[in-house]
Amino acid sequence: MADELAPVDRRVFIVATAVFALLMAFSARYGFHRDELYFIVCGQHLQLSYVDQPVFVPLVARLSVELFGVSVVGLRLWPALAAFGTVVLGGLIAREFGGGRLAQLLGAIGVASAPALLGADHILDTTPFDLLSWTALAFFVIRIGRTGDNRWWIPAGAVLGIGLANKHSIGFFALALVIGTLASGGWRLLANRYCLCGLAIALACTVPDLIWQAQHGWATIAMTRVLAKENGGLGNAISFLFSQLLMAAPPLIPVWIFGLRFLWGSERPLWRALAWSWGLLVVFFAATSGAKPYYVAATYFFLIAAGAVRTEQRWAEIKRLYLVGVPIAFLVTLPIVLPVLPQGWIGWTKAVNPVLTETVGWPQLVGSVTHVWDGLSPAQRANAVIFASNYGEAGSIDELGHGLPPAVSGHNTFWWWGPGKPDAGTVVAVLPGPKDDPSALLARLRSDFVSVTQAATITNPWHLSNQEYDGHVYICRTPRRPWSAIWPAFRTYS
After folding, report:
1. Domain that holds residue 416
2. pLDDT tens digits, one per residue of 173-209
3. Cut 0.90: pTM above it
4. Residue 350 in contact with residue 469, Cβ under 8 Å?
5. β-sheet bridge partners, residue 454
């Protein structure tokens, strides 16, 4: 018999609406992020999958452009909606754990105040939908654990499938849940036709991605190996572990620890599996080279919801965490995760959150490229291409460079779209600033072209040091062999 639940607290939806309104209010304060520009271009080149993500977000970007044009506000509507859904689930999960109206409100506030949610759901990327899908999968697992009704495995499988069509990481969460369930003695909850049906739905959603990967040399695996080589090591593991304290508002660390203890001590195998999954994933990603701290951020949402039930019971003792600590933490976090400050004041934030500084300077980059392109003679432009060192530069030229031809790039999926004009005699090359060390790429251009001339420097009015700041635009003339023969060596995965 399923446990009787408290009524849904409507204040959960008020909190979720407030988060949605906050994200939309600041959605157009700066500009596009490099990933957003890339996703727009990917949406214009719809295919079964891509080097760095499956097809879901490019589809969302395509829908957004169809509805709103190339609009930063239109693009960021979708992650803001994802944030709304994630916050609501935070409250509903607390209810599934047996929480009353106060616990539901506390669960929603805990998710809404999480720096990981506010920072990730500010831009269109895979992470907002990853957070939502992980939280939704946890909700269904918790409900199955409470009710024993295995029919809920079917929507759980659908959520897992959509999550896999967005980002592969939810597959690790699902695997950790299976291991945790088996370790908790709950194998019967997995050995039934509903669970198998849900699994079949999830696997069916991965077929397009698998087909594309097989046709493109398993490019995502190749990219993952590069990232592991570049970003691995003990330092990354230590940083990953320390950053876990910042996924939720720091004053709520005792709350999610309460939640972890509650789940670990539960007699319900699926609830205890959630505690197992947190531990397994933290250890796995800490030991995995190149893992980013936010990879397990969604686990803290169900831990906070579980801890909210305990907090409700001890509200008189612990209410200062919410009434004083959370508002202070929120105000401190806000200028780090959202564009609330003038653009010239945000240079210090990149040490904690590099996203904000990567949303400025694109119009200036495009202006520099346009100036160089317009300086070519008509005959040169007729047989020239614009080459960008990364997908952000290429995306900005494609979406903001009115009058410019589409850019080509060797970065990730752009490389698979080819070199543009195979016999190009002139290449206008955009290289990043010193932060990305363009020396190897510049040396390659100089070996492949008779003449490589610096034609412009990329800056921005605020002198913010991001990937493109102090980069340069070069004019490369007279290739030593056909541009199409040079092209394969420019492939870069990162």
Report:
1. 361-490
2. 999 999 999 999 999 999 999 999 999 999 999 999 9
3. yes
4. no
5. 474
